Amino acid sequence: MKKIYILHGWSYTKDKWEPMIWGLGALGYQVVFPDIPGLTGTLDKPWELSHYMHWLRDILREEKEPVVLLGHSNGGRIAISYTAKYPEKVSELILVDSAGVYHDDFFTNFKKSSLKTIAKAGKVFTKSETLRKVLYKLIGVRDYERANPIMRETMRNLIKVDSLPDAKKINAPVLLIWGSGDKVTPLSDGKILADTFPNAELHIVEGALHSPQITHSADVLSIIQKYYENNI
Hints:
Elements (H helix, E strand, L loop, with lengths): L2 E5 L10 H9 L3 E3 L16 H12 L6 E6 L1 H12 L4 E7 L9 H15 L1 H5 L2 H11 L2 H5 L2 H10 L5 H6 L4 E6 L7 H10 L3 E6 L6 H4 L1 H15 L1
Parallel strand pairs: 1-2, 1-3, 3-4, 4-5, 5-6
């Protein structure tokens, strides 16, 4: 039975993944779903992507056979970095609405600048909850609003990362699954990744947003099943 390790995105609970876990088990996978430090696990200082990569290295150190990595959103960013560094440990990648495509454009730079401004002026924004929430909504960072100070700095560290150089190094088969209406990591990011990985297929889940593995789990499982029947 092949092992599949799930790396969830920026979430503080794993409850909504239950249909996917059950479905992957029905497809014959042994599912391992580790807690992500700072999210479903604890963290006592801000981390950078390299810390998450080393954390995953330690988790997979005892695995004798290559595993499948399934990463959603920020979990995909971690999976890409790890696979580029330790290709012998990963047989296949499944990336669902993955983060990691760096955008050097006005909106992205405005968002980064806003996060820095909020971090520096935290006391001012704390005095006005309404003002703080309006600004967070304008720049589209609800996850940042909910995060504690350690994870806010961690998020600022992670959004600076460009995963494309690592993606170019990965020769393992990559299955990209994307929600057609994703506004967080848009479908255009999926197309960029599909063109960057040497061996990748992109499958689109119509009507899904950023988390098709939650809202359209049957569709995602069907894509995984058909992909492996045809390719692996």
